[in-house]
């Protein structure tokens, strides 16, 4: 393997409760696996945070960028809900495996990603409409 084709090693990172791991709108390529703690995936609506998911040990985030071939900025932010330890993968680690997947399965993955991105946008849009109508994002805010 040539030096230019060398795959970056797995990196381990820690974040304290409340720290931002990924910022919506930024470009990034890393994929994260949660080893300890939990994270919240959210989109911002003004000063409000619209929670899209809460993930825990063994779950992965940042994968949308990989499956979307790094063409768009991050679609959501991710913050540590408590002290978090993460395993960080470079997408080159998965690229060869992805190429081995049948074209039909790759097509299904692409369609699923497209639907998930649209659903995230719908959730954000609904929250924005609720805020305009009631001044609140959710019944609890």
Widest sheet, order of strands: 1-8-3-6
H/E series: EEEEEEHEEHH
Highest CATH level, the class: Mainly Beta
Q: Structural class, please? A: alpha+beta
Number of strands: 8
Radius of gyration: 17 Å
Tell me the domain tally: 1
Number of helical segments with 4 or more residues: 3
Fraction of residues in helices? 25-40%
Task: Describe the fold and architecture.
There is one protein chain. The protein is 33% helix and 29% strand. It has 141 residues and is an alpha+beta fold. Strand 4 and strand 5 form a beta hairpin. It is globular.
Annotate the secondary structure layout.
Blueprint: E1 11-15, E2 20-22, E3 31-36, E4 39-45, E5 48-55, E6 60-61, H1 63-67, E7 77-80, E8 84-89, H2 92-100, H3 103-134
Antiparallel strand pairs: 1-8, 2-7, 3-6, 3-8, 4-5, 4-7
Short structural description:
The protein has helices at 63-67, 92-100, 103-134, and strands at residues 11-15, 20-22, 31-36, 39-45, 48-55, 60-61, 77-80, 84-89. By secondary structure, the chain is α+β, with helices and mostly antiparallel strands.
Keywords, separated by commas or semicolons:
141 residues, alpha+beta, Jelly Rolls, four-stranded antiparallel β-sheet, 3 helices, 8 strands, 33% helix
